[in-house]
Amino acid sequence: MVLTIRGNVAQTNAADGARLDMAMLESLPQQELTVHTPWYPQPVTLTGPLLRDVLSLVGATGQELKASAIDDYTVEIPISDTQDYDVIVATKMNGKPMAVRDNGPLFVMYPLDSNPALRTKLILDRCIWQLNAIVVE
Fold it and tell me: Is the bond into 105 cis (omega within 30 degrees of 0)?
């Protein structure tokens, strides 16, 4: 399992919520974003499902997501962001799966290049890498 989603979710497959593996994420429609980020010297192409599709898969309802990374970094993401913007849960970078050392295996990314208004500290803080858990509130 690469992602656990707990809290207000209707579709669960474990005692603590929904546990998704890479195959489940890759079975959803895939999106591709090429973005310039402060973390990489060159633009990167990230591929993965829309975060709203991941939330829909588990029947998530609420106002806010508390997303956590492997290193316990946690950030709050309003669920409205997933409707207002094509935020993806990237499973691949430049066509290849991401190792933990490369900020993987999952990286939440906003469409920073197609919407320059998103290039704020607040939004960049929400671009959480090494994502492994979401609590829906």
Answer: yes
CA 89 to chain centre: 3
Q: What is the pLDDT of residue 85?
A: 98
Q: What is the residue whose two structure tokens read 């990237």? A: 90
Structure token pair of residue 41: 């010297």
Q: Which residues contact 112 (CB under 8 A, 6 or more apart)?
A: 35, 36, 37, 118, 119, 123, 127
Distance of CA 62 to the CA centre of its chain: 17
pLDDT tens digits, 27-55? 999 999 999 999 999 999 999 999 999 99
pTM value > 0.85: yes
pLDDT band at 1 (very low <50, low <70, confident <90, very high): very high
Task: Give the chain's length.
Answer: 137
DSSP code, position 79: H
| Segments of 1-137 assigned E as strands | 3-7, 18-20, 30-35, 44-49, 64-69, 74-78, 88-90, 92-93, 96-97, 107-109, 131-136
Beta bridge partners of 109: 88
